[in-house]
Amino acid sequence: MSILKTLGWNDFFESSFNSYCNLMCDSFLIPGRVISENKNSYLVKTEKGEFNSLISGKFRYDSIFSAQLPAVGDWVVLKLDQYLNQGIIYKVLERKNFLCRQSIDNRSNINADQQIIASNIDTVFLVVALGRDFNISRIERYLLLVQNSGASCIIILNKSDLVDSTTEYIEKILSIKDDISVYPISAKEKYGLDYIKSEIKEGKTYVFVGSSGAGKSTIINELAGFDLIKTNEVRKNDERGRHTTTSRNLIVLPGGGIVIDNPGMREIEVFADEDDLDDSFNDIKLLADKCRFIDCSHTHEPDCAVKEAIEKGILDERHFKNYLKLQKEIKLLKEKEKNKIRKINRSNLKI
Questions:
Q1: Where do the CATH 3.40.50.300 domains begin and end in the chain?
Q2: Rounded CA gap, 284 and 277, in Å?
Q3: By CB count within 10 A, which of 210, 243, 272, 339 is most buried?
Q4: Is residue 236 very low, low, confident or very high in pLDDT (cuts 50, 70, 90)?
């Protein structure tokens, strides 16, 4: 199998690459996949090896949004400089999908911006540590991010050795999303890892996300069969971890699967729309459709099916409050997006 195919290359990306090459009439262009990202450069793996690469001046100038720049998991078009032993990136090939959040640097800014966590992924492994750091509202946020990406999701409940039973935790997750796979494991005790191994297929890309100290790096090391990534101990006073992974990295496992490890995320600023929210909180959407008023706020209106469900104990009030919180964030995000578009349009008029 070619190096590109082990990295997930398929007809979708090849068609996009050929179209661009025909347009540019340049036979020296080659495809590669971004396997890590530094501040001003990218490590790209190609059929000819791995090359530190910079983006071309025109590419940078034409990129209005940061999400247009390469991210880990992207397939890019580049040209090699044999003298400097580096690549120049000219284009990001069309993404199959991507996982993103609102940029932390811009959360207080009036302009919205995306931070691409990983692109061209098949499945997201959401790693959740059992014990005091378990937070169902945070899990709902992650599930909204995954919903927006279009990738499938599997929840890994790690550190099952810290609790007497995992049943309660599994039931809490299934109460908010009953069609998701949930695997209780203990990476430390090497229990349940076969569940994950059975899901990983050759040529497919999997991204591991979760809070610091959840055990993502330990799990990836176990899947690889050796220590690919340095791991740290969690703090004993609150069971929370220190950042092990400080940058995103794409790794090909010995069995052929492709994994992307991510730094732990304490803050999950959503970048989604109302449709994604409704899909993630489908139980609330179904109830809202039964309200008397189409624009029911579910706070004071008569004949509100949502309020009635909460009063009868059918709908969890915490679940609903988290929905309202996310809904408010999404509305604010849309205002930021409008502001950014207006700013860009004003800049274009000045040219």
A1: 98-261
A2: 10
A3: 210
A4: low
Per-residue model confidence (pLDDT) at position 243 = 47
d(CA 322, CA 281): 10
Name residues whose C-beta falls within 8 Å of residue 323's C-beta, 6 or more positions apart in sequence. 277, 281, 284
Average pLDDT over residues 25-51: 94
CATH 2.40.50.140 domain locations along the chain: 3-92
Domain 274-350 has CATH 1.10.40.50: yes
* Closest C-alpha to 142, from 204, 216, 205, 203: 216
For domain 98-261, give the CATH number.
3.40.50.300
Contacts for 262 with CB less than 8 Å, ≥ 6 apart: 117, 118, 207, 208, 209, 216, 245, 248
Quickly state the pLDDT bin for 72 (edges 50, 70, 90): very high
The CATH number of 3-92, from 3.30.470.20, 2.40.10.120, 3.30.420.40, 2.40.50.140, is: 2.40.50.140
**Residues 248-261: pLDDT tens digits?**
899 999 988 999 99
Q: Name the region of 149 (left: φ>0; alpha: ψ -120 to 50; beta: rest).
A: alpha
Residue with tokens 């530094």: 38
Looking at the chain, the number of H-run helices and the number of E-run strands are 11, 13
* Residues 7, 259: Cα–Cα separation, whole Å: 10
